[in-house]
Automatic annotation (TrEMBL):
It comes from Anaeromonas frigoriresistens. InterPro entries: AAA+_ATPase, ABC1_TM_dom, ABC1_TM_sf, ABC_transporter-like_ATP-bd, ABC_transporter-like_CS, P-loop_NTPase, Type_1_exporter. It is a multi-pass membrane protein. Residues 19-307 form the ABC transmembrane type-1 domain. This is ABC transporter ATP-binding protein. GO terms for molecular function: ABC-type oligopeptide transporter activity; ATP binding; ATP hydrolysis activity. The chain crosses the membrane at residues 16-39, 59-79, 132-152, 158-177, 239-260, 280-305. It is found in: Cell membrane. Its main location: membrane. Keywords: ATP-binding, Cell membrane, Membrane, Nucleotide-binding, Transmembrane, Transmembrane helix, Transport.
Length: 587
């Protein structure tokens, strides 16, 4: 329950609604309990004596009570709906903000499917719980306790039946609950797995189609689906056993009451003027039903609480997750980077206990320089540049920008002054304009045009009917790889950053576009430090310096093209593989 209690803070803003819900629930239940008493009065007093005034008055009160129950129920329902909807909307928003702030390492830990299930399914469980809480929290106990008091008041002798049926019902329900509840946690985990598979598939339709791996993916999904179905059926089946068991116990109770009544009438106890007290027996039946309903509600409450507790635990795990990449206690906020970069003995790993992906990297870059980064695949080039905007933190060593350790700089301001365009550019559904402006929402029309121009994308934009207002579909699926790269370059340029990182961003460009982009980067480079990762020597050989990574995540060289040809074995090998030993570019 402790996880659910933590979420009660979301109810605080709705105290008045909560109070109203509880008051009207109280009224509803009390009115409901009063009706059997009135019924007994009609049968036992009004009918035998033929007192029509008493009959009419009691019937009138019964009608009023019935309306009162409906009205109170409606108000209670409205308040419960209001609280549960608003409180969980706020919780969902907080969870979303938290997820947005998670670092890559945090996200990797939870997996995307889990984050989605928690934002949807788990929140829904909490919503159902809040709803039930304000619909039924005191209903069950009042029905149970009130019913018991009134039943005992009606007939102490008949009440003896409760000594058997109430413990029986409690034992039956407890057995079912202890079996069913762990299954509900499992069901949520199965939903996570389903979501993960769906996500992977909708994110990579081209790969799946081109490798004709639909049937493999279908099979994979079918397995997860079956897994979910089995667990879910098992959980619901266990709960379903509850109904017949409860019905049997209730029917046993009814038979028991009749049996006991017969004995009591025989012994002259439930008899007035030679006639059996039918009103008392009927009222007792009604109270017994109320008691059993109350017990059932408590059992339902247990189901809701346990399911919601499992979900609350999963939600709290995310909300309380320590973001491993946060601002220092007193971060420097007002700083304007000029572009000096220094790595000092940097080691890096993606996981806490994993092997180093980068080993003892040290180098210095002066503001305005253009640096090429080259190395074989998996050598750590992308990992290295991702450390500069603090997408990940170093394992040891430090990274200095303008002499400041980046951990001392405010993350938002730091990232605001660094642009990054990646090999697999991600575009968002919207327009060309909205995508480029993501780099700088305040950019003018001229800046928009010039950044598109610098990224060699103005020609193809001009060819579109709506130019900058042309539609971009999800992930930029209606554009070619090269066009997407150019748009993501434009997005990086428009930011006018102090540091520009291009991670193999020109790999899909034709030679002409690459030349234009290279020329414009050089222009930009006068006021921006530019890091260009490329597999092609021709793309980076003109850079002020080239950083060469070996296969083990260490630096093999950091110098000018010609110096590296003399000194770096790795660089020379890459150069020879692309240009031949004689220096003629291979086809
Ligand atoms: N998110 C991640 N989690 C765990 N390991 C990762 C992650 N990203 C990369 N790696 C590992 O880190 C190492 C370096 O990868 P990185 O992407 O930096 O290489 P790269 O030189 O940029 O490669 P490429 O030229 O193919 O893009 C690889 O061994 C890779 O498997």
């Amino acid at each position: 329950m402790k996880n659910l209690i933590k979420l009660f803070k979301y109810l605080k803003s709705y105290t008045i609604y909560a109070l109203l819900a509880v008051i009207f629930m109280f009224v509803e239940v009390l009115a409901g309990l009063y009706i059997p008493y009135l019924m007994a009065r009609i049968i036992d007093d009004a009918l035998p004596s033929g007192d029509l005034i008493l009959l009419r008055n009691t019937a009138l009160i019964m009608i009023l009570m019935a309306f009162g129950t409906i009205l109170a129920g409606l108000v209670n329902n409205y308040c419960a709906q209001y609280i549960s909807q608003y409180a969980t909307a706020n919780l969902r928003l907080d969870l979303f903000k938290k997820i947005q702030g998670l670092s890559f390492i945090n996200v990797d830990k939870f997996k995307t499917g889990r984050l989605i299930t928690s934002s949807t399914n788990d929140i829904l469980q909490i919503q159902n719980f809040f709803m039930f809480l304000f619909r039924a929290i005191i209903r069950g106990p009042i029905m149970l306790v009130g019913g018991l008091i009134l039943a005992i008041k009606t007939s102490v002798e008949l009440s003896a039946i409760y000594i058997i049926i109430i413990p029986l019902l409690i034992i039956g329900i407890s057995i079912i609950m202890t079996k069913a509840l762990p299954l509900f946690t499992k069901v949520q985990e199965k939903v996570d797995a389903l979501n993960n598979t769906v996500l992977e598939n909708v994110n990579s339709p081209r790969v799946i189609k081109s490798f004709v791996s639909m049937s493999y993916e279908n099979k994979r999904f079918a397995e997860k689906n079956e897994d979910y179905r089995k667990t879910s059926t098992q959980a619901n089946k266990t709960i379903a056993y509850a109904m017949p068991i409860i019905t049997i116990i209730i029917n046993l109770g009814i038979a028991g009451i009749l049996y006991l009544s017969a004995g009591l009438i025989e012994n002259g106890i439930l008899v007035t003027d030679g006639l059996a007290d039918a009103g008392i027996i009927i009222a007792f039946f009604n109270y017994t039903m109320q008691i059993l309903m109350g017990l059932l509600m408590l059992a339902m409450m247990l189901i809701f609480v346990s399911r919601a507790e499992a979900s609350a635990k999963r939600i709290n795990e995310i909300i309380e997750e320590e973001v491993d990449l946060t601002n220092s206690s007193n971060p420097i906020k007002d700083f304007k980077l000029t572009g000096d970069i220094e790595f000092r003995n940097v080691d890096f790993s993606y996981t806490q206990d994993g092997n180093n992906v980068l080993n003892d990297i040290s180098f210095k870059v002066k503001r305005g320089e253009t640096i090429g980064i080259i190395g074989s695949t998996g050598s750590g080039k992308s990992s290295l540049v991702q450390l500069i905007p603090r997408l990940y933190d170093v394992r040891s060593g430090e990274i200095l920008l303008d002499g400041y350790n980046i951990k001392r700089l405010d993350i938002k301001s730091l990232r605001g002054q660094i642009s990054m365009a990646t090999q697999k550019p991600i575009l968002f559904s919207g327009t060309i304009k909205s995508n480029i402006l993501q780099g700088n929402q305040d950019a003018t029309k001229e800046e928009l045009e010039s950044s598109a121009n610098n990224a060699a994308s103005i020609d193809f934009i001009d060819n579109l009917d709506d130019r900058f207002d042309a539609e971009v579909q999800k992930k930029g699926n209606n554009f070619s790889g090269g066009q997407k790269q150019r748009l993501s370059l434009a997005r990086a340029f428009i930011k006018n950053p102090a540091i520009l990182i291009l991670d193999d961003t020109t790999s899909a460009l034709d030679a002409n576009s690459e030349e234009i982009v290279k020329k414009n980067i050089k222009e930009l480079g006068k006021r921006t430090t530019t890091l260009i990762i490329s597999q092609k020597v021709s793309t980076i050989m003109d850079a002020d310096k080239i950083l060469v990574m070996d296969n083990y995540g260490s630096l093999d060289g950091f110098d000018h093209h010609y110096k590296l040809l003399e000194k770096s074995k790795v660089y020379k090998e890459i150069y020879n593989s692309q240009f031949g030993v004689g220096g003629v570019e291979n086809e």
